[in-house]
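Researcher: Sequence recovery benchmark, item below. Answer with residues only.
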């Protein structure tokens, strides 16, 4: 069972989808939060087989429940035809609350997930935030092996990460029939690990893994659909200068990135740690924004002259620019991206995160220790509160 710690996820009072990669604690959270719910686990082969053969059986099960019951269907993408039955039951308006979990949205998209739009909310569960973990919080361990609950509880996180990749990524993709040639997909996973925290060039990745460009495009979409990776778009609003056209790419957890990333004599540990640190900040920003009902849209910024800011948070009332560097000291050139961005967007609040121990203010840029920032990230706090500006 995944590590049982209070989560920041705030469940809605109505029916909802709860998406999230495998191992992020969805099932553990739901069993603890709704102990009296009717729980239908589609990871169990016999249950999956029965409901695949006759989806209408779930209607009989639900009709046997009292009014106002909670019904949890775990890993709904295993039997997407159940969505029609759930839709029918919701239309009966008997105050049943349905919670449908999923670690992949690909088959649900094909099956018409829009059928339930407006009746069922969309929510997502993420790996742990450091601030969720209390006494289990360990910045260095998070940087090395990530914050997936399944990995955090392990006595051997590196080995468990390799098992996680084999069981929950490669086999999940193979089971769903999403990829025809697993050899090509395995080479792709290694190749795209070099793009974690970097601008994604599909043609370069295709060349590295010796497959066609359109195949890589499909593979990237698969990673997004199974919630393992995401693309971060470039910030273009009222652009004062030409910016890059390509997005950046991140795995959902820095431990997964490090487990996939090949190492050799030419790979500097500091470079891998730098990408890992940036990814750790990204997964915290993404979870914080998601749990707070998305008050900001996340971007990055990069000019055609290769001047870059790692993250731009754009909200209805304010915006933040955040640069992350795996360094214990701050040089003036480290702040150049933020300074250039501030020239184009002077209303921005600029933040520099680094591996030092001291809070500083340089050129009106707030410089913070990265571990201090991450421990302060809490969905109940505004960004100014997190930065200690209030």
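Model:
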């Amino acid at each position: 069972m995944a590590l049982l710690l209070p989560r920041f996820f705030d469940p809605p009072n109505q029916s909802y989808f709860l998406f999230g990669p495998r191992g992020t604690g969805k099932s553990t959270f739901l069993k603890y939060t709704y102990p009296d719910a009717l729980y239908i686990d589609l990871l169990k082969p016999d249950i999956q087989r029965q409901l695949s053969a006759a989806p209408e059986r779930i209607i009989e099960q639900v009709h046997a429940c009292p009014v106002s019951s909670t019904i949890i269907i775990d890993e709904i993408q295993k039997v997407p035809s159940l969505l029609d039955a759930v839709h029918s039951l919701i239309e009966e308006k008997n105050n049943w609350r349905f919670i449908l979990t999923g670690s992949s949205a690909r088959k649900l998209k094909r099956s018409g997930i829009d059928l339930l739009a407006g009746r069922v909310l969309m929510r997502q569960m993420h790996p742990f935030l450091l601030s969720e973990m209390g006494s289990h919080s360990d910045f260095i361990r998070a940087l090395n092996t990530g914050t997936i609950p399944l990995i955090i509880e392990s006595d051997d996180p590196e080995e468990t990460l390799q098992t996680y990749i084999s069981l929950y990524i490669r086999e999940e993709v193979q089971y769903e029939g999403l990829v025809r040639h697993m050899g090509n997909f395995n080479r792709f996973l290694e190749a795209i690990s070099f793009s974690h925290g970097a601008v994604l060039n599909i043609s370069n990745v295709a060349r590295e893994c010796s497959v066609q460009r359109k195949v890589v495009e499909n593979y990237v979409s698969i990673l997004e659909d199974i919630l393992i990776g995401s693309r971060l778009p470039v910030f273009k609003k009222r652009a004062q200068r030409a910016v890059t056209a390509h997005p950046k790419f991140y795995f959902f957890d820095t431990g997964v990135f490090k487990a996939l990333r090949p190492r050799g004599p030419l790979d500097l540990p500091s470079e891998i740690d730098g990408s890992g640190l940036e990814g750790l900040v990204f997964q915290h920003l993404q979870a914080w924004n998601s749990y707070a009902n998305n008050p900001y849209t996340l971007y990055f910024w990069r000019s055609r002259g290769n001047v870059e800011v790692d993250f731009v948070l754009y909200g209805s009332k304010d915006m933040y620019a955040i640069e992350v560097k795996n360094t214990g000291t701050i040089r003036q050139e480290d702040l150049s991206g933020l300074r250039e961005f501030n020239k184009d967007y002077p209303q921005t609040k600029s933040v520099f995160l680094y591996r030092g121990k001291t809070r500083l203010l340089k050129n009106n840029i707030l410089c913070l220790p990265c571990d201090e920032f991450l421990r302060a990230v809490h969905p109940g706090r505004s960004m100014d509160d997190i930065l200690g500006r209030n």
